[in-house]
Amino acid sequence: MTLPALILAAGRGERMRPLTDHTPKPLLKVRGKPLIEWHLEALARDGVREVVINTAWLEDQFPAALGDGSRWGLHLRYSMETRDHGGALETAGGIAKALPWLGEAFWVLAGDVFAPDFRFDDETAQRFAQGTDWAHLWMVSNPPHNPGGDFALSLEGRVLRKDKAPPATPCWTYSTIGLYRAAMVDEVVVGSRTALRPCLDRAVDQGRLSAEVHTGQWVDVGTPARLAELG
To answer: Following DSSP, what letter does each residue of the chain receive, concatenated?
Structure first.
């Protein structure tokens, strides 16, 4: 059975203002359709059927725009953080809230990145589900806005803290696409605003974080200029 997916779409998108004053960033259009639809089409193409979208900023626009997912052959659910908790719960808090719909292992991806050729490979997902790592991340080459990268990556595919990695270990930027296990957020109180980075660092320190490099197109659509460059 294919793993479900969580699309993170709760953020305010401050750097995208004024475009996001009236439209959530994942619903801004790229090449004629909302950014998040590129993800939904890719998930459906690769056999994923259950998808949760977490929402907060202007969250009522998501079900109005995307419906129940049937047009893509998906079953969409909405984890509405403003309705239930008064605002966005940040990434780890959002994952923890959505766990009842996700189960033990699942895909997580940010709704504001453009990665049209990423493959949600079921064989990779099933292998991860049968393992013991808390997450398996996809890394990308460091973009201009993050020249130092987020993590070091060993030749064996193990994620390391940059300040503790052997000299000359390459550093990469986290693409915000990964496979996750519920254990990643088992210390997060449901309903609390909790960032993901401390959870990832804990996984690194426990030796439970792996990664590989994604070489396809990837853009963090974080500013109006980057959105405009995509056409």
So the answer is: ----EEEEE----GGGTTGGGSS-GGGSEETTEEHHHHHHHHHHHTT--EEEEEE-TTTTHHHHHHTTSGGGT-EEEEEEHHHHHSS--HHHHHHHHHHHHH-SEEEEEETTEE-TT----HHHHHHHHTS--SEEEEEEPPPTTSTT-SEEE-TTSBEE-GGGSPTT--EEEEEEEEEEEGGGGTTSPTTS---SHHHHHHHHHTT-EEEEE--S--EE--SHHHHHHH-
Q: How far lies 1's CA from each of 22, 78, 106, 124, 197, in Å?
A: 38, 21, 11, 13, 29
- Total number of domains in the chain: 1
Q: Please give the structure tokens belonging to residue 110.
A: 């940010």
- Closest among 137, 141, 116 to 128, alpha carbons compared: 137
CATH number at residue 85: 3.90.550.10
Q: Is the pLDDT of residue 8 over 90?
A: yes
Q: pLDDT category, 229, cuts 50, 70, 90?
A: confident
pLDDT (mean) for 102-111: 97
What is the span of the domain harbouring residue 156? 5-230
